[in-house]
Amino acid sequence: EFAAAMCRPKGRIVLVGVAGLNIPRQPFFEKELEFTVSSSLGPGRNDPSYEGKGRDYPIGHVRWTMQRNLEAVLEQMSAGALPVERLTSHRFAIDDASRAYDLLTSRTEPYLGIVLEYPKDPVSPARVIGAKSPRADKNRVSVSVVGAGNFSRLVLLPILKRLEGVELRGICTGKGLTAAAVADSAGFSYATTDIDEVLGDRDTDAVFILTRHDLHGAQVAAALASGKAVFVEKPLCITLSELDAIGRAVSANSRILSVGFNRRFAEGTRLVRDHFRGSSPLTVSYRFATAEIAPEAWPQDLEIGGGRIVGEACHAIDLCVALTGSPVARVFAEAVAPVGSIRTRDDRVFITLRHENGSTSSVAYQAAGDAGGPRERVEVLGPGRTGILEDWDRVELWQGGRVVRHRTRKDKGHAAEIRAFVDVCKKGGDWPIPWEHLRSTSWAALAAVESLRTGFAIDLETAFD
């Protein structure tokens, strides 16, 4: 009210900081006043591209950004023009914090700023909680898990705990409290916030990596280099350079690498593959209906989540590779036009794949349609045969004018893929997914994104030029 009374007609009142917003209507109406709230620190505040990725605003367009404001203030402080030390009237060691609060409440002497000081050489906090002693049974596979999100806690850990011959060794997360809680509830030997503790643990045989997508590439390469068997949830990586680095790590190490392309391990997939065994070339049509997510969500960010093609449509691409039994040689992608209310395009896309053995596949990856409708449908056609897989619990196999129908439990292959990985860790043998398929699926997803960007088909033989 005081600000409104002081302001001239048609003036502007700016709120700096935090205050109540019970604005009286009458003086604002009579004087036609303007009220605005000042963003803290300056332009760039609350902008994810500026704050999270360091993308500055051109100085010719925005002179005083948040960063430049801070730089100017620090320069003034360094030059002595802003003697901020005068703002501090009292200092107390953290052990004497009670004296500081007594000063505040007793008001026995004047004070301005009160600082609580910690020791100059504090003891480093523990990075590992729990026993890290050698495992008791050398005949068991000892696994450590990096990441404790919903998939890790609700899908992976229950499966691992049901498998015989598996010892839960270490759990690593970004937050110590989360790591300790998961270790306690799941029965891990130790909890840590440092992945290097896991990679350096000689009693960890295999590492499951379930972190944010942009961390996968470097963590997979580091885990392979440390001599661990590695299972990483999809995607394997989000850039071609990461894929190339992982390829070098695979060549330099003999340990197994697998990726969470679970659909190729589903019971329905096994039935269809057996039906077409020995048949080639095949034509695969895969409709993958998925839920819409906001454009600003992290999976949509190419630098963090890799985008939805790399982050999720890779499932469909890998299944096409598995069904045809052949890596991808050529990729072309086409998305819906940016018209009407369309805010994202790479989650409403058709991806055409040409395989090395002459087979072709078409993936319709669509974040559209009714949420209650069918989600996934796969149709395979080969010489004299047809196979249909519907929503992972219904299979039709056609040959000679006759059809055999199967009803299975709704199974997307998670348990089978993890069991296959653990079995190879224990007994050796062929990888559950050949490296050629892992590399091909990852490349094809990245190539689809590039095809959308350029409007051209992308050939494998030019991908790593």
Classify the beta-strand content into a percent band: 15-25%
CATH superfamily of the largest domain: Dihydrodipicolinate Reductase, domain 2
Number of domains: 4
- CATH architecture of the largest domain, by name, is 2-Layer Sandwich
Number of separate strands: 20
- Sheet with the most strands: spatial strand order: 19-18-17-16-12-15-14-13-20
- Binned, the helix content reads 25-40%
- Silhouette: globular
Low-pLDDT residue spans: none
Mean of pLDDT: 91
Total helical segments: 14
- What would you report as the Rg, rounded to the nearest angstrom? 29 Å
Largest sheet, strands/sense/barrel: 9 strands, mixed
Question: What name is given to the CATH topology of the largest domain?
Answer: Dihydrodipicolinate Reductase, domain 2
What is the terminal separation in angstroms? Answer: 68 Å
Top CATH class of the largest domain = Alpha Beta
- Strand pairing plus helix content: what structural class? alpha/beta
Describe, in plain words, how this protein is organized in 3D:
With 465 residues, the protein is an alpha/beta fold. It has four domains: 2-78, no CATH class; 84-117, no CATH class; 128-260, NAD(P)-binding Rossmann-like Domain (Rossmann fold, 3-Layer(aba) Sandwich); 263-462, 2-Layer Sandwich (Dihydrodipicolinate Reductase, domain 2), CATH 3.30.360. 34% of the residues lie in helices and 22% in strands. The protein is built from 14 helices and 20 strands. It has helices at 2-6, 25-31, 48-53, 66-78, 97-106, 150-162, 176-186, 195-199, 213-225, 240-252, 267-275, 307-324, 414-427, 435-454; strands at residues 12-15, 34-37, 90-93, 114-117, 128-130, 141-146, 166-172, 190-192, 206-209, 229-232, 257-259, 283-289, 328-335, 348-355, 360-366, 376-382, 385-390, 394-399, 402-407, 458-459. It has a nine-stranded mixed sheet, covered by helices on one side. A seven-stranded mixed sheet has the order 5-8-7-6-9-10-11, with helices on both faces. Helix 7 links the parallel strand 7 (166-172) and strand 8 (190-192). The protein is globular and about 95 Å long. The model has no long low-confidence stretch (mean pLDDT 91).
